[in-house]
Protein: Centromere protein S
Amino acid sequence: METLGDGIGSAGESDKEREEEAAEEAALLRDRLRLSVISIASSHAKTLGMTISEPVVACIADLSFKQAEQMGRDVELFAQHAGRKSVNMEDVILSAHRNEHLMGLLRDFAQELKGKEPCTERKRKKKAWKNDNKVQEPIEMLD
Structure:
């Protein structure tokens, strides 16, 4: 027989497991971003004929990850404030409000995406008003 304490303990463990999984996923994403930053920085430095130190690349990767985390939180809050459960392109554009150049690039990108999408909007049929349904008879004027 399960007691009240057993149910609480298992719920606490599941929350703890979720937190551990989230931490593992964040660490995996951080490592993948670090590898991408190393690849991009080294190839760019190579084209310029320069070298870049590993601590600098690691710092750039960590800053990029922190910036992405912050932007993700901001985007979620903007969607939540608008009363939505999902994030849309306007939330992403709004999250870049501190950087006008980035905001402009995001708006241009959003316009390009809208141009590529097939037109799925249908025109609404005009609803007949209650008074419009009645047939008006001509008025005869007597002399």
